[in-house]
Amino acid sequence: MSKLNGNRKVDKNEPIATPEMIREVREKFLEDYKANADLYESVDIEKIKQNDFYVRRYINYLNQGPEKGLEQMKKAYRWRKEFNLNHFDQLTVPKEMYQLGALFTYPPDKNGDLLLYVRGKMHRKIELVADRIKHYFAYHVNKLDEKAGREYGWSIIIDATDTGYANADLNMLLFVFETLRTAFPNGIKYFIIYGLPWILNAFATFVLQLLPSNALSKIRFFDKQQLFAFVDEANLPDFLGGTCKEVYRRVPKEAKDIYSLAEEEGLTREETDKLLKPSLKYIDNVNFVWVDHI
């Protein structure tokens, strides 16, 4: 048994990872990598070798310690390889989705923590793009997490204004929370829901009942006053009453339109029109920028 598995009682908010724990977990993880190299990504292995953060977070998560932390670490990095997280293809997402500006990073909050915005009313449960949206979301979280490079270094703001049952997607929400829990432990600081309409109160209550207590502790429901207290007006996007001029609709130069991608999936133009119709009013064909990489 590891000498690092003491039964010392600790405050649940107190980080428990010591340099010795980090060294031991890293060594054991790299032993597993040598035995199962095909299950891991070399780029992830290099980060683990060079930065304690990518080991420490698993030890500190729920104060689970080195043994459980090591097992979660193995699962997380194997999932990253299986999910192809480091190789997100931005051209698998249709141009129209980028023009929606439904998912993007933006300037930090008042504490300097990074932010990812999600516009709930833009989302629809469409099988054609469901997996692509999951990869798109995970890509953004991964990029945000790497940029922060520390525990509790970023938050997600869900703008639920004008959302309804057509936007409620339990499968997608469970994917989001499970991804944050298993692949990015102790990464998110707050999961903020702004402007939730009363019609979705029952749905929100049901979702909250499915989440563990540590996930619930991250969730905040904000009104406008609370949002402006959290993020400076100059850093907020226009649809939330902010004055930031940074363009958040970023479209890759080679992005394909949804008709091209739908045709690859065997859908007719008429079928694609039906899927696209609810989102047409939100697609902005003017206020976006072409970029090499999102």
UniProtKB/TrEMBL annotation:
This protein's UniProt keywords: Membrane, Transmembrane, Transmembrane helix
Any one annotated GO CC term: endomembrane system
InterPro entries recorded: CRAL-TRIO_dom, CRAL-TRIO_dom_sf, CRAL/TRIO_N_dom_sf, ER-organelle_contact
Record PROSITE patterns: CRAL_TRIO (PS50191)
Residue ranges of every copy of the CRAL-TRIO domain listed in the record: 91-248
CDD domains listed in its UniProt record: SEC14
Top-level taxon of the source organism: Eukaryota
Transmembrane portions of the chain: 191-211
Classification via PANTHER family: MOTILE SPERM DOMAIN-CONTAINING PROTEIN 2
Name by which UniProt lists this protein: Motile sperm domain-containing protein 2-like protein
